[in-house]
Design goal:
alpha/beta; homodimer; 20 helices; eight-stranded parallel β-barrel; 655 residues; six-stranded mixed beta sheet; globular
Chain lengths: 655, 655
């Protein structure tokens, strides 16, 4: 097993939110680390590097400013930690990974860690805080190496195999550990031929990856093909109820756990967009998931079964089929049928990671099933790492949403975990757009505690990442509302999918309108939107419990930002905001575009205050964002002007 | 030099229009071939094979049924031939390639060749009858090996080089020689890195191809990069007026002709869609073309300079820029400036091989320049070898069009030649769709004589290709009007480009509407079409001489089928046919679709009458054609119904 030390950040790679400067308050003090074990060793390594950089001291006996104590308590949550403060000393205690999280709690607080403000008891809200990587081992001819990645090649794989040098993976694991991510899926949920073999003959290389993630409190999992018994095992069937199939999964899984005792489990995309699944055998998804769950059960493993199942050969002429309904239609009837080590991984919205969707009705409909909410850290539909689009406010809204109304709990209370699709790649900035690092950071922080104060996560990230405190206000302005800005200049009022079918970047208002993908807006000369009401539409509103089934059903109560997701309305329909739909489209598109222009100006003033490489990259990307926002503004406005004939109430130029 | 005999058709490859059965009338008779030289040898080989197959006899002295005489006349057109008929003998005489053409005249006539009907004097209408092959040596990651090919890989290249086994090329050359094609361009006009080197270090392999084409009367040419002096020669410039550049072209060309004395010349796509050209040096296209023309001049070579030059980064917001104007704007002012061994290769329509365009105004505007009209045998925009689309009627219309009105000559009189883009590839049927062989055949025949009687070329092709005379009537019905059928179910009234931008197959009504390609329809709730009038539009009509400048300008006289190419009109505009524009759209789309259905039924009745492989392939393709025609019908109708709000006057289902 190689040892990748804290300091081994490869040349030219951005340190993201863990630059040496972030460790100054800690590193300039006297620190003691007590205990042993792999994660204590990681903490010890971090402390040693910090004091070396900043003139502090590791102290064995005597007075210290900071004490990090790995305890042997076996009762509590090993991910939790406590912080106590005396007049002179801050003490962090934890029985497991919590010690690492406590260390980074101290790092984040900076000087405040050495005051009473640091004290408290801390535990993660979500036990499962997972990142899925849609990385291919082989470069896919269409999808590239990291599907929907936009940030270079895979960190894990190169030249058809796991990389020999894993130093960059170690640096990545360190970043993830610092924000409390505790599981990663190592490969694309679309499992191709080579990738399928990670489960069997390529397993020794997976062991090497597991060894690199483990010191940071992270368990690795694999996306597996439901057809593995056929593809890898040479069986005649993958029928989940077939004894030979079950035996194959049991044997194969035992071999995995023999090599990786803390293996997280399997991620499965089944019967979705061409991936194999239980439907081929007349079985349902509970049958499918449970077959695999029973194989990992003896070892404490989990099956992450994706609920992203829909008809991807829909006929656009057929208005009765509604892709938004699909996950609920397929899965809600199976509630209670899944084993307790199955986590049903549900996209946060009912369609597909759009800038604005309602929360998936599945969340409220499967009380007897462990669920995880799935997000995208990668900006597939939100600017593909070319646009500033800080997504934490979106995720926060989802996690705070109350599926049963004010009387019930929030999404964050209803789920057993959160999962996001990472896009980290070999780009020097990890996430392509340097400011998109905040999305990766924020995902971890929100997974740990979705109740962190609005804006706090962003300011934490800015404070850690940039040595100059003077950039905070401007950066906050650039980023904080950027998701809503993106929403304004793209598809309006929750209608979604007006993107180029080839690649999902840039506008194509009718791009999906006559396609097989089930994502339509139905704009005609009179109006626009999808009627998903029970009264006259697809009935999708009926998948929600009260009050939402009624809130969304009625034009009187449906929120403006979701209007076209739930209703087909005439262009002169008056929103709660007081403007008509068509005037809203014009206004938001002009406004969103203007906001990008202002963002570019705000950013330009940061020259010399942020590293030159960051400044230059973001400056270039803002040029592209403005160009693309101009296309969005003009194409969407022109499209609706041509259809509606409605003049802009403010007389602006529409082509 | 390998010898590829007549009989060497590789296993499994379709004989196209030269099956052994086509040679029965000739092959069952007594035949004498007189003379020598390479083409006489080819004729001799054909005759020998035919009599071997069908029981005839090659006779040295004495009475014969057919005599083919290669003469030594040096005065006339070596491509012409005469046919005389006595009571017992048909005699064909020619001084060059005409003997081969005369042989195939005899083959085409079948039994009638041995009657008075065969006699006459025959010469090609067009001295240049050329096929361009958009073949890449290396498989292009996006465009594949044969750009816009749709019929397998390249016949010429495999595995990064010219094929070692050229037997299939020889069979292809034989097919082309039989229809009078006399020049081929061997590589894609978009010249990539490897392909550029065909001119220099890969030249020995080009020699091998030239050797295979030569016995069939065909000279080979190469597409070359205008940047060759830089890319291949290491010069600092490709400025056509630079003496070093001229010297480089002279030296390089001399080497080509030393290896291939009958080399046809260079095909050049310059300053077009990213290809390099003279504009980079502040030179015009006459400067560019003449620089290369002077290099090939001493050897009798020609430069085929494409007029396909336009702004491919157009802003859709800018309605004053008109791609249709581009070729005329760029080239008409240069008339008189091109050397006499330059042929300006002009796409037959002003845009890009659409199912319906007016004839390019360039044809009538450059009387002092040698022009060639360019067509596509490949069905890039006409169904991509998946749809039955017999294009000869389209080309016939173009060649018969009178650019100066009834008092002047036809396009066929105004040009020095015709060129088409072939799509022949490694597909067993050569052209992908078996019935598309008729397009390749018909191109050669029409290039030879565009005044052949309407329908005759198709019947010739059917007669040669299918041994069973009983299939003629049904096949004629399947194919003869298929281009107009295709026109009916696709983009209406000459408006063009409603295809998927990624690949040009299938409908996407707004696919190009907000793109950079300059191909728009401007449909809004009130009307559709491009205003290209002088009065209120782009002024494109002014590029035509009288009478067309006025015919197209006026709604009263503009032909219906080109209405939306020249005018933006309201949906309720009444056509000369008496129906409104929108009702015409509905009617033609329902009708076109119904015609495909009827075509499929007609075809189905041919089972057992045509070879099973042909029947099965065409049957499969008709299924796809019907599916695709259904999409076209429904998407176009729905699109215009949503925009116009106009109900179908006949109450048919519009989605």
């Amino acid at each position: 097993m190689n040892d990748y030390s804290v300091a081994a950040l490869p040349e030219g790679v951005d340190p993201a939110w863990l630059p040496p400067s972030a460790f100054r308050p800690l590193g300039s003090r006297r620190v003691r680390v007590v205990g042993d074990g792999p994660l204590v060793a990681t903490v010890r390594g971090e402390v040693a590097a910090a004091v070396r950089d900043h003139g502090g001291e590791v102290v064995g006996d005597g007075a210290v400013d900071l004490e990090l104590v790995g305890t042997n308590d076996s009762g509590g949550d090993p991910e939790a930690f406590t912080v106590e403060r005396t007049a002179t000393t801050t003490t962090v205690r934890a029985s497991g990974a919590g010690l690492l999280y406590g260390l980074h709690h101290v790092v984040r607080l900076g000087e405040a860690a050495f005051s009473a403000a640091a004290a408290g008891e801390f535990a993660p809200r979500q036990p499962i805080r997972m990142l899925d990587h849609w990385d291919n081992v082989d470069v896919h001819p269409v999808m590239g190496q990291v599907e929907r990645g936009y940030a270079g090649g895979s960190l894990f794989y190169d030249d058809g195999a796991v990389r020999s040098d894993l130093s960059r993976v170690a640096a990545y694991a360190r970043l993830l550990g610092s924000i409390g991510v505790n599981r990663v899926g190592l490969n694309n949920v679309n499992v191709h031929r080579t990738e399928a073999r990670l489960l069997t003959d390529l397993l020794p290389d997976v062991v090497r990856l597991a060894d690199v993630f483990r010191p940071h409190g992270i368990r690795v999992g694999l996306s597996v093909s439901f057809a593995s018994p056929v593809v890898l095992g040479g069986l005649a069937t993958s029928d989940p109820l077939d004894p030979e199939v079950r035996d194959w999964w049991a044997r194969t899984t035992a071999a995995v756990y023999a090599a990786i005792p803390d293996f997280a489990g399997y991620v499965v995309k089944a019967d979705s967009e061409g991936q194999p699944g239980p439907f081929a055998y007349g079985r349902d998804h509970a049958d499918g998931a449970n077959a695999l769950a029973r194989a990992v059960k003896p070892f404490g493993g989990t099956v992450f079964w994706r609920a992203f199942v829909y008809d991807h050969h829909q006929d656009w002429r057929d208005r009765s089929t509604d892709r938004a309904r699909a996950a609920h239609d397929h899965f809600a009837p199976l509630d209670g049928g899944f084993d307790d080590n199955v986590v049903l991984q549900v996209k946060a919205g009912p369609i597909d990671f759009q800038p604005r969707e309602p929360v998936s009705p599945v969340i409220a409909s499967m009380p007897s099933t462990r669920l995880a909410a799935e997000f995208q850290v990668t900006q597939e539909y939100t600017g593909q790492q070319k646009h500033v689009c800080y997504l934490v406010p979106q995720w926060r809204e989802v996690l705070a949403f109350r599926p049963w109304g004010d009387g019930g709990g929030a999404v964050a209370d209803a789920v057993a975990g959160v999962v996001a699709v990472s896009n980290a790649g070999t780009d020097p900035f990890w996430t392509g757009h340097p400011l998109a690092q905040a999305n990766l950071y924020g995902f971890g922080r929100l997974a740990w505690d979705d109740r962190l104060a609005q804006g706090a996560v962003l300011d934490e990230w800015i404070g850690l990442t940039f040595a100059d405190d003077g950039v905070r206000e401007a950066l906050h302005r650039v980023m904080d509302d950027s998701w809503r800005t993106y929403e304004r200049y793209t598809a309006p009022l929750g209608v979604g999918f007006m993107v180029n079918p080839s690649g999902h970047y840039g506008p194509a208002v009718d791009g999906y309108e006559y396609s097989r993908w089930g994502t339509y807006h139905f704009a005609d000369r009179d109006g626009v939107g999808v009627d998903r009401t029970r009264a006259t539409g697809t009935g999708f509103t009926g998948q929600y419990p009260a009050p939402w089934r009624d809130v969304y059903e009625s034009l009187d109560t449906c929120p403006d930002e979701l209007l076209l997701f739930f209703h087909h309305v005439p262009y002169d329909h008056v929103l709660h905001s007081g403007t008509t739909v068509v005037q809203h489209i014009y206004d938001t598109h002009f406004d969103g575009h203007d906001e990008v222009r202002r963002t570019a100006a705000t950013w330009a003033a940061l020259e010399g205050r942020v590293p030159a490489a960051v400044f230059d990259r973001v400056t270039d990307l803002l040029t592209e964002q403005l160009r693309c926002a101009t296309e969005w503004r003009d194409q969407v406005n022109t499209y609706f002007h041509r259809k509606s004939g409605a003049p802009d109430g403010r007389g602006r130029r529409i082509y």
